Amino acid sequence: MALWWPLLVLAAAYALCRILLFLIPPTVPSIDVDASDVHVPIGLKKNTSWYCLVYYGYLTIPPRKGKRAQTDKVQCYEPATMKYLGYFPALTPDEVKEHVAQARKAQKIWAKSSFKQRRQFLRILLKYILEHQDLICEISSRDTGKTMVDASLGEIMTTCEKITWLLDEGEKWLKPEYRSCGRSMLHKKAKVEFYPLGVIGAIVSWNYPFHNVFNPMLAAIFSGNAAVIKVSEHASWSGCFYFRIIQAALAAVGAPDNLVHIITGFAETGQALVSSVDKIIFVGSPGVGRMIMNRASDTLIPVTLELGGKDAFIVCEDVDLPSVVQVAVRAALQSSGQNCAGAERFYVHKDIYSTFVSQVVKIIKSISVGPPLSGRYDMGAICMIEHSEKLQNLVNDAVDKGAEIAGRGSFGHLGEDAVDQFFPPTVLVNVNHTMKIMQEEAFGPILPIMKFNSDEEVVKLANDSKYGLGCAVFSGNQKRAIKIASQLHCGVAAINDFASSYMCQSLPFGGVKDSGFGRFAGVEGLRACCLVKAVVEDRWWPYVKTMIPKPIQYPVSENGFEFQELLVETLYGLSVWDRLRSLVNLLKMISEQNNSPANTRKKSR
To answer: Could you name the active-site residues (predicted)?
Structure first.
């Protein structure tokens, strides 16, 4: 007993020290990021560190119609007001290659950085984000039309969650991982090592301009890579400002210049990026994803494709209806109708269908749509020009085929030039799978609600889609919900919740079918930025070394194959007795060969 007391005291002292260290906040320097020009009235502002020439201001320009007039400039507007934000250059292939070359040079230095330095980079970013949530959300709102609340949910929380997961677990998952060595290699140690790939390229969509930049950048930089990110032509203004935050944080930890690049442009710019980097991550449409794959095949680089979805939202009859209705509306209108893994198909059990619809319609009718920064609105603008026309065409197609509009939201005070940029949240009932709204990704605030009769039927309906990104299943019986979700062909599932899996950043994110392949986020996404190397080494070096058994040494002996047969049976026989019997025969063969006359003569010489 006396022996245990010192051990208990040491354990308690260790635990106390860990608690005290946990309570002591780390020293994290602040960074200064110039944001004065995003509030400045019209004026010319040149920032060479962006490689961009930008006009910031509030010049109102009529809504754009038709094809792009210029291909050498990316014009930026506030979708909620159509105020002009400025322009950025559409980089040529040669300019893209120069950016990648600079990043590659910086990566060779950064690859040698410590995890301590990388964690400090993350802490500096986290501190800045926490202290400047309003600025980050305001810029996202101005560039994409979403509300401040939607920006906080989709931009701030997701990014902070990723940073904290990397701080807590990132190093653990990038350290060598020891694996079992198998029966034939008991004298060896087997492990997997993770090395940076080099330059990670990303082509990201517009719906979450802050998180879509930070998401691939964080994984790339923490795993020792460089990153070159092409932001969407619909969200270039915000992406280039967010780049300043990254630059300042990298400088604060002494990272090499040019480790991260933000580039702007159109298809030609993206194609050049794919041809220049060591891995490409793409978030966008299936059509463009196929072109990315085709271009990546030229250099045979790994590709991760997240190509959107048509997520099913399933509601069984035994749910707590009021709470589920609120989640359903939030899921459909996520990010001002600019869904990313948003619910686009709603299947509700026939016994509660009418009640569910009436409660959804009640909420939808209370929603006010308007410029998100000019008043208290529940939903903002549609980011892409003329996308509201596409949404209305989907509604018209459904109505023409028998659907009914059960309710719509209302418009707030809109300027004349901004009307085309808004679309009211719309509830459709009596829908079926012949309608485009149940098959095509809408990327808009439309709730098509279809009834189902049984669990078997709803599984069949949910799987009747070319997409396979995510799903949400609600039931008062959790086992029932889990069983339904397990039968759905998709990459992400939430039980009695929606999109909660993405907030668990230890989990991978991605889909199947036309939703793409590969995963970002989680352990899988982090390691996907790495060269994964299998390594085998001697367990008891130098005392036990690899030697080729005599029967199969060159020249191979007459009984070489017999030796191999016995060796296989010794290692993999179905029973212990089979393996022991083969081992005895194997040892006997080796002994006989060692004592053969030819071998004896060799020894005497």
So the answer is: 306
> Around Cβ 500, how many Cβ atoms within 10 Å?
14
**Is the preceding omega at residue 25 within 30 degrees of 0, hence cis?**
no
Give the count of alpha carbons within 13 A of 466, CB side only: 11
- pLDDT value at 340 more than 90: no
Q: What are phi and psi of 484, to 5 degrees?
A: -65, -50
In 197-255 the beta strands, taken as DSSP E runs, fall at 199-203, 226-230
* Cα–Cα distance for residue pair 33/55, rounded to 1 Å: 19
Lookup: tokens for 382: 């549609």
- Tally of residues, the chain: 605
The angle subtended at Cα 224 by Cα 219 and Cα 229, nearest 5°, is 50
State the pLDDT at residue 277. Answer: 98
Element (H or E) spanning 517, and its range? strand 516-517
Nearest to 345 by CA among 478, 420, 437: 437
Provide the residue ranges of all domains of the chain, joining segments of one domain with +.
89-308+510-546, 311-466+470-504, 550-591
- The vertex-518 CA angle with 516 and 524, nearest 5°, equals 150
CATH superfamily to which 89-308+510-546 belongs? Aldehyde Dehydrogenase; Chain A, domain 1 (3.40.605.10)
Q: Is the pLDDT of residue 15 over 90?
A: no
Residue of 313 and 82 predicted with greater confidence: 313
Most distant CA pair in the chain, distance:
105
How many beta carbons lie within 10 A of that of residue 581, not counting itself? 15
Helix (H, G, I), strand (E, B) or coil at 162: helix
* Residue range 339-367: mean pLDDT, rounded: 90
* Residue pair 247/177 in contact by the 8 Å Cβ criterion: no
> Residues 268, 131: contact at Cβ < 8 Å?
no
Residue 316 is predicted with a pLDDT of 98
Three-state SS string across 165-197, please? HHHHHHHHHHCCEEECCCCCCCCEEEEEEEEEC
Residue 64 pLDDT exceeds 60: no
Report the candidate in 439, 103, 510, 507 with the shortest Cα–Cα distance to residue 282. Answer: 510
Structure tokens at 320: 């707590």
Q: Name the residue with tokens 């005291």.
A: 9
Cα–Cα distance for residue pair 280/297, rounded to 1 Å: 11
State yes or no: pLDDT of 48 exceeds 50: no
Tell me if 197 sits within 8 A of 230, measured CB to CB. Answer: no
Residue 98 is among the residues annotated as catalytic for this protein: no
Give the pLDDT confidence of 96-127 residue by residue, as tens digits: 999 999 999 999 999 999 999 999 999 999 99
- For the chain, how big is the Rg over CA atoms in Å? 30
Residue 312's nearest CA partner among 347, 359, 336 is: 347
What's the pTM value of the predicted model, to 2 decimals? Answer: 0.90
Q: Which candidate in 78, 155, 306, 344 is catalytic?
A: 306
pLDDT (tens digit per residue) in 532-568:
999 999 999 888 888 888 889 999 989 999 999 999 9
Q: How far apart are the first and last CA of the chain?
A: 65
CATH of domain 311-466+470-504: 3.40.309.10
Give me the pLDDT at residue 46, please.
Answer: 38
| pLDDT classification of 414: cutoffs 50, 70, 90 | confident
pLDDT given for residue 417 in this prediction? 55
